[in-house]
């Protein structure tokens, strides 16, 4: 029998048990000066340092982050790893942006060596921003998915990815067919889905670039491979929506196109959903399909303002997505900031507790992974992030004036970024630590 591996991390600990919009203070647990004890990469116990210090064997070194906030790892429910090379590309809305920047950038991913180089940079960025799980677009090339999974597996990350399906309205150099897309996706599923912490997503780019035949074959893949994901785009841009109606004139609305090919379900994730009719919203709720809210991208491409309150009231599953490269930051804290501002523009709001819930347990629920990740319940995988509320001079000054936990979280969401992440742990082991941080007992560094 293998020897048990124990790790212990000490700091102020916050995690969510449910949606604070529904259950208020009962939805979360906060332990000031707590210890998170992990065994073989899973959560063993959470409690106050006063209670647990006597239980931890002397040989287990406790990594101490005084004054820091320990939360479950952030979960990005929609992001494009091949687009990191075109992040912050100027001046277009969605359809023109795809033609001008996205398609030429993705062409290079036929080269697996190049794809692996980009995947390495991408994963470095995710982890340094505290993101431990992501639902990721590859390109139309199967080797882009092999490259991504090779790098993710080497880091023991829980990641979901898929080959793009795209058989029309795209450049010839990115076009597959209904049958080749089916075969290549099937082979990738057999190779990667369920291997270590990796899972596969059937990935039609969006309805305009897939023929009815291809969407039908995507539905076949979903039916034939229980447990895989379906990941695509939905109702992001008004011109896009009009185009979908032209291409699928018999559909009731954009979501109905996917529905007709049996692509909705509890592991179906639709990015954006900015412009949704009432029937589409209700159908998402009824099928337990999820929306990935990508506020930074929606603002950058001028796509519109996301109706978070409406979807939440209907019980639609929702997570946050950065949507890099249309999104301009890998930081889930900056994503929270943009999400808050979008609600303000609609006369609504997004309290900090709800924002942190959406970035952790809420996104885990959107991905149907709430039994595996998303909070610190016993037995879950120990992916978590350590946040420094004093990571910058301004944060240090402002946090001193925060009156309570909610206000401190709000300040972190509004003013935080990648510098706020002191450490990121994967299965209980530190995979990233900011160089200026020290975990030695008694450390008094100003910004530690």
Automatic annotation (TrEMBL):
* Lineage: superkingdom: Bacteria
Listed pathway(s): Purine metabolism; guanine degradation; xanthine from guanine: step 1/1
Q: What InterPro entries would the database entry show? A: Amidohydro-rel, Guanine_deaminase, Metal-dep_hydrolase_composite, Metal_Hydrolase, Metallo-dep_hydrolases
Q: What class of enzyme is it?
A: hydrolase
Spell out the NCBIfam families in the cross-references: guan_deamin, PRK09228.1
Asked if the Swiss-Prot or TrEMBL record annotates the protein with the keyword Metal-binding, the reply is yes
Say which family it is in.
Belongs to the metallo-dependent hydrolases superfamily. ATZ/TRZ family.
What does it catalyze?
Answer: guanine + H2O + H(+) = xanthine + NH4(+)
Cofactor descriptive note: Binds 1 zinc ion per subunit.
Gene Ontology, cellular component aspect: cytosol
Quote the PANTHER family the UniProt record gives: GUANINE DEAMINASE
Domain Amidohydrolase-related, first and last residues per copy? 70-429
List the GO molecular function terms. Answer: guanine deaminase activity; zinc ion binding
Output one GO BP term.
guanine catabolic process
Name the cofactor(s) required for activity, per the record.
Zn(2+)
Q: Which UniProt keywords apply?
A: Hydrolase, Metal-binding, Zinc
Function in brief: Catalyzes the hydrolytic deamination of guanine, producing xanthine and ammonia.
Name the chain's protein: Guanine deaminase
Q: What EC numbers are recorded for this enzyme?
A: 3.5.4.3
């Amino acid at each position: 029998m293998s020897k048990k591996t124990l790790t212990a991390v000490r700091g102020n600990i916050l995690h969510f048990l449910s949606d604070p919009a529904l259950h208020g203070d009962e939805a979360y647990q906060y332990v000031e000066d707590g210890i998170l004890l992990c065994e073989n990469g899973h959560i063993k116990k959470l409690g106050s340092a006063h209670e647990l210090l006597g239980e931890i064997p002397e040989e287990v070194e406790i990594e101490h982050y005084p004054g820091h906030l320990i939360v479950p790892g952030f979960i990005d429910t929609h992001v494009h790893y091949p687009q990191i090379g075109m992040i912050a590309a100027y001046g277009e809305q969605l359809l023109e942006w795809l033609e001008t920047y996205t398609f030429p950038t993705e062409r290079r991913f036929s080269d697996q060596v190049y794809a692996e180089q980009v995947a390495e940079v991408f994963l470095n960025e995710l982890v340094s921003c505290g993101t431990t799980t992501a639902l990721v677009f590859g390109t139309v090339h199967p080797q882009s998915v092999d490259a991504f999974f090779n790098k993710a597996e080497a880091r023991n990350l829980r990641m979901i990815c898929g080959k793009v399906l795209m058989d029309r309205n795209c450049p010839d150099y990115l076009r597959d067919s209904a049958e080749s897309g089916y075969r290549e996706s099937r082979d990738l599923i057999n190779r990667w889905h369920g291997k270590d912490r990796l899972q596969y997503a059937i990935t039609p780019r969006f309805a305009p670039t897939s023929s009815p035949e291809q969407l039908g074959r995507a539905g076949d893949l979903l039916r034939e491979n229980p447990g895989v994901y379906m990941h695509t785009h939905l109702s992001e841009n008004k011109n896009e929506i009009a185009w979908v109606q032209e291409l699928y004139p018999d559909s009731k609305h954009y979501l109905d196109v996917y529905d007709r090919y049996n692509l909705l379900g509890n592991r179906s994730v639709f990015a954006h959903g900015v412009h949704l009719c009432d029937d589409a919203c209700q159908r998402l709720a009824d099928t337990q399909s999820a929306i990935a809210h990508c506020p930074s991208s929606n603002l950058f491409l001028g796509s519109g303002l996301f109706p978070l309150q409406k979807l939440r009231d209907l019980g639609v599953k929702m997570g946050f997505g950065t949507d890099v490269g249309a999104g301009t930051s890998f930081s889930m804290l900056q994503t929270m900031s943009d999400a808050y501002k979008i609600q303000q523009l609609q006369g609504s709001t997004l309290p900090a507790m709800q924002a942190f819930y959406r970035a952790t347990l809420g996104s885990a629920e959107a991905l149907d992974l709430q039994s595996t990740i998303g909070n610190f319940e016993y037995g879950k995988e120990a992916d978590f992030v350590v946040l420094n509320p004093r990571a910058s001079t301004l944060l240090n000054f402002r946090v001193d004036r925060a009156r309570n936990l909610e206000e401190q979280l709000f300040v972190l969401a509004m003013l935080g970024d990648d510098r706020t992440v002191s450490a990121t742990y994967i299965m209980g082991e530190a995979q990233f630590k900011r160089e200026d941080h020290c975990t030695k007992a008694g450390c008094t560094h100003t910004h530690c």
